[in-house]
Design goal:
Elements: H1 8-13, E1 22-26, H2 34-37, E2 45-49, H3 57-70, E3 74-80, H4 84-94, H5 103-110, H6 113-118, H7 124-141, H8 147-151, E4 156-162, E5 169-171
Parallel strand pairs: 1-2, 1-3, 3-4
Antiparallel strand pairs: 4-5
Helix pairs in contact: 4-5
This protein binds zinc ion (ZN).
């Protein structure tokens, strides 16, 4: 941990414009702040956070802005070990219960990852977390606004799985 780009000088140097090198769509989980786990500072990362790192319209619009106006060349969809939004989705499906309030929107978005995960050997929660990350990546890659940047190779989308136990991110 070097804590780069967090000085008053850096703050001044990015006060007029920003050119973050990566967009991170991450879960809102308190143990997963992208600037902390990737050891980045002011102006480095353009972060969109929502529980379950799902793609929804306002988040997608934020990503479109960063790609289109800031020229950010990389998107990382970041999920993590023991994701509460994913385990809530599995519980809701297994017990046939309706989630309360707007949590339903999270469950609805994550649910299509479950049958994909069920086809894979191993732990269902971990597999669903990974299938859900891949689902968000695929939705981003199907976005029409991003198509020119994706087709020309100016934009790349990767997935990351963060281990709460050891603090590493596996990128794929
Ligand atoms: Zn989570």
């Amino acid at each position: 941990m070097m804590h780069p780009d967090q000085s008053p000088e850096t703050r001044l140097s990015v006060s007029k414009s920003q050119a973050p090198f990566a967009i991170v769509l991450s879960c809102s989980d308190s143990r997963l702040p992208p600037e902390v786990i990737f050891d980045q500072g002011l102006g480095d990362l353009f972060v969109v956070r929502v529980a379950g790192n799902i793609v929804e319209p306002a988040g997608m619009g934020s990503i479109e802005y960063a790609v289109g106006h800031l020229g950010t060349p990389l998107i990382v969809v970041l999920g993590h070990q023991n994701c509460g939004a994913v385990s809530a989705t599995l519980e809701s499906l297994q017990h046939h219960t309706e989630p309360h309030g707007d949590v339903a929107a999270l469950v609805t978005a994550i649910t299509p990852a479950v049958p994909v995960a069920e086809q894979r050997p191993g732990d269902l929660l971990t597999n669903t977390i990974k299938a859900n990350i891949e689902q968000s990546r695929d939705q981003i890659m199907q976005n029409k606004e991003l198509k020119p940047a994706l087709d020309s190779g100016k934009l790349k989308v990767v997935t990351g799985y963060y281990s709460l136990d050891d603090g590493t991110v596996s990128l794929t």
